Amino acid sequence: MGVVCNVIEKDAGGKAMPVKSVNNRKKKSDKTFEELVHDLKHSNSEKVRYNAARMLGEMGLSEAVEPLIDALKNDKNGSVRLYAARALGELNDMTAVQPLITSLREDRNVDVRVRAARALGRLGGEEVVVPLVEALNDENSQVCITATDALIEIGDIAVDALIESLTHEKVNVRCDATRALGELGNNKAVPHIITMLKDEWVNVRIYAVTSLGKLDDTRAVPALIEVLQNEKENELVRAGAAAALGVLRDQRALLPLRELIMKAEELGELEDTALKAFKKIMAANWQNIPGTANKKPISK
């Protein structure tokens, strides 16, 4: 990595001005395209090869795709394959999709699989969806997270495959799919995520209440109220349900939230979240609530 230097400048009166960071990044290569390709293919130095792969990606020339694919497939050094994967994502050439899918599925190096997932997210397209969904089941959590983020980047074409993943036997896959569907914001997922409120794993249920808030669909209100009122449920899940209800601002939640707050002898995290949600809903609906039409909305 480059060296970061702090430079203190002074104004005309000698007073110190805000600190600026100067990042001494790697210099761009003075080598030609042909020389970089030669280095990538023939140098005995892994450092020379991975720098060649990096700089070929930065050049942005489609002619670099073929040698980079060859490096991704055949170079014995993981760092070289990693930079080749990154460069292929930057070059935005769809001929790289299948080699990247193969690396995502088969490369033993975790960092290469992470880079392959990221590159596939940038390239997009229907053919990358299934391999990325499969990668949610990778043995390494960083690969799973990166694949999730890649699916979010791809957008709505990933929704159906993610919905199918909600029934996967592995809890981390269900967690990642639930999170991704919330981020994607497609309301087709709402009834499916509602079913995840019954998942046996608390982490899945936490992601479910959060995603239902993000999806901003009032179909989720009755299910979220049920979670809120379930005293046997984990408090983080109940607090998440309260927060989601605050986002949805549906006045059906006012009475359940009020009852929860009034029961408490003192306000813990759950009750505090419920109170904030109650105020948000009141502020959004005060003109429609009997007895409040002539009053100012409750402060947020």
SSE layout:
Layout: E1 3-7, E2 20-24, H1 33-42, H2 46-59, H3 65-74, H4 78-91, H5 97-106, H6 110-123, H7 129-135, H8 141-154, H9 159-165, H10 171-184, H11 190-195, H12 202-215, H13 221-229, H14 235-248, H15 254-263, H16 269-285
Helix pairs in contact: 1-2, 2-4, 3-4, 4-6, 5-6, 6-8, 7-8, 8-10, 9-10, 10-12, 12-14, 13-14, 14-16, 15-16
Any overview of this molecule?
With 300 residues, the protein is mainly alpha-helical. It is 61% helix and 3% strand. It has helices at residues 33-42, 46-59, 65-74, 78-91, 97-106, 110-123, 129-135, 141-154, 159-165, 171-184, 190-195, 202-215, 221-229, 235-248, 254-263, 269-285, and strands at residues 3-7, 20-24. The radius of gyration is 26 Å and the shape is elongated. The two termini are 45 Å apart. Mean pLDDT is 89; it is low at 1-26.
Can I get a quick summary?
The chain contains 16 helices and two strands.
User: SSE string, helix = H, strand = E?
Assistant: EEHHHHHHHHHHHHHHHH
Which class of the domain at 31-154 in CATH terms?
Mainly Alpha
How many β strands by DSSP? 2
Helicity level: 55-70%
Q: Which homologous superfamily in CATH is the superfamily of the domain at 31-154?
A: Leucine-rich Repeat Variant
**Going across the major beta sheet, what is the strand order?**
1-2
Indicate the CATH architecture of the domain at 31-154. Alpha Horseshoe
Rounded radius of gyration (Å): 26 Å
Distance between the termini: 45 Å
Please work out how many helical segments DSSP would assign.
Answer: 16
What characterizes the major β-sheet?
2 strands, antiparallel
Low-pLDDT parts are 1-26
Indicate the CATH topology of the domain at 31-154: Leucine-rich Repeat Variant
Q: Label the overall shape.
A: elongated
Q: What fraction strand?
A: under 5%
> What is the average per-residue confidence, as pLDDT, rounded to a whole number?
89
**Structural classification:** mainly alpha
